[in-house]
Design goal:
By secondary structure, the chain is mainly β. 0% of the residues lie in helices and 47% in strands. It has no helices and twelve strands. The strands form three sheets. It has a four-stranded antiparallel β-sheet with strand order 1-2-3-4, with no helix packed on it.
Length: 190
């Protein structure tokens, strides 16, 4: 066997548990979320919330936490909410391509907005209204080559949960590739 020079990085907890952001004005909790640095150098945490005790049917916008450093010294400050289009808004994911930020979210279809600074979001689109499999949720986009991105998303096949892969060459049109992970009997409890 040939020896590899690949470095394996192992996540480590570097200190005690500390809260990052607790919304108070626009929500009472944070569920699935994304963290990124905006064009002004501030850190932003954008996540699912509502003014309920976790009623997922009321999760129709994202709470925003902002801080100059990450992790923040103290709690992130609450900013204005994002993506309030009076329909479910779950699992935001932000990437930066050139000078443009792209935010993707679900469920059941792929929503997208863009921003020149990662602060003010506009151009709401539903870029995939009928995904290949039902229960399409929790998108994550990664660039794999020049002008090529992969979208990983949870889904459900005939009986079990799965992770599906789509590809795009422009971040707007998405083509289903295949399942990247399938589960079998007993996996629904994992």
């Amino acid at each position: 066997p040939q020896e590899s020079n690949t470095t394996v990085l192992t996540p480590q907890i570097s200190g005690p548990w500390e809260p990052l952001f607790i919304p108070e004005k626009y929500g009472f909790y944070i569920n699935d979320h994304t963290v990124y640095q905006d064009a002004e150098g501030n850190w932003r945490l954008v996540g699912i919330t509502s003014l309920t005790n976790g009623d997922f049917n009321e999760e129709k916008y994202f709470a925003v936490g902002v801080s100059e450093s990450f992790p923040p010294e103290g709690l992130m400050q609450e900013g204005e909410p994002i993506a309030n289009f009076d329909e479910l808004a779950w699992a935001p994911h932000v990437i930066q391509e050139g000078k443009t930020y792209h935010m993707f979210w679900s469920p059941h279809k792929l929503h997208q907005m863009s921003s020149g600074d990662g602060i003010i979001w506009e151009n709401h689109l539903v870029t995939m209204s009928a995904p290949f499999h039902k229960f399409f949720r929790d998108p994550m986009v990664i660039k794999v080559a020049e002008n090529q991105w992969l979208l990983y998303t949870t889904a459900k096949g005939k009986y079990y949960s799965r992770v599906d892969i789509y590809q795009s060459f422009n971040l707007v049109e998405w083509q289903y590739i295949r399942s990247g992970l399938t589960n079998g009997w007993g996996s629904e409890r994992n």
